Amino acid sequence: MKYTRITALAAVSLAATFSLTACNSDDSGNDSSSKAPSSSSSSSADGGSKAQGGTGSAAAGNATSGSGKDTKAPAGAANGATKTGGKATFCKTQDLAIDAANAAPDKTSGRINITMINRGSATCSATGFAGVDIKDADYTSNPIERGQAQPRITTLKPGDAAVFDLSYSIDTSGNSLAHPTNILVTPPNETHTVTLKWPGGAGQIKGAYTDVEVYPTHTTK
Fold first, then answer.
1. CATH topology of domain 90-219
2. Confidence band for 221, pLDDT divided at 50, 70 and 90
3. Highest averaged pLDDT of the listed ranges 1-5, 18-22, 211-215
């Protein structure tokens, strides 16, 4: 009987040992399983890092492309500046021979023609309105307003002439209050002025100097 109990106990003990081993084996499996996600997470983190690196490279490429555009823009602007520089510069007062003459078409319409001849060595532009003031016998200067007209391209080669005129109505009463003595002319787009004598024989101005108008330049050809 004792032998039978010992054998039974041994069998129970052996079964318990197998059971424990099986448990340990399951635990080890769980450990391996738990490590697998960890490894997967690490791989994912590496992948994410690479993805970010790729985005960074793309951004760098865009930045480089943008930089290329910025570099080209000034080049285009420089070309534009070259084209602008190729146009004729405005005529300088010092290069112009300027004179005024009476050019009235009749006894009621007053007109003073002012001629500007390019005495310089280069072609220049006299396009636009000249600045004009009329000086009176009382030593006052009166600015002349522009007439309703569009400027015309007026390019002068050396020796060429441009003309503009002052227009007004002639006072035939003999009671004009305007007594002009000089015309102060500043060529278009210039700051230096020349003083001309009021042409002899020109009719008297009807009204005030505000009734006189200056018209844009044009060529004589």
1. Immunoglobulin-like (2.60.40)
2. confident
3. 211-215
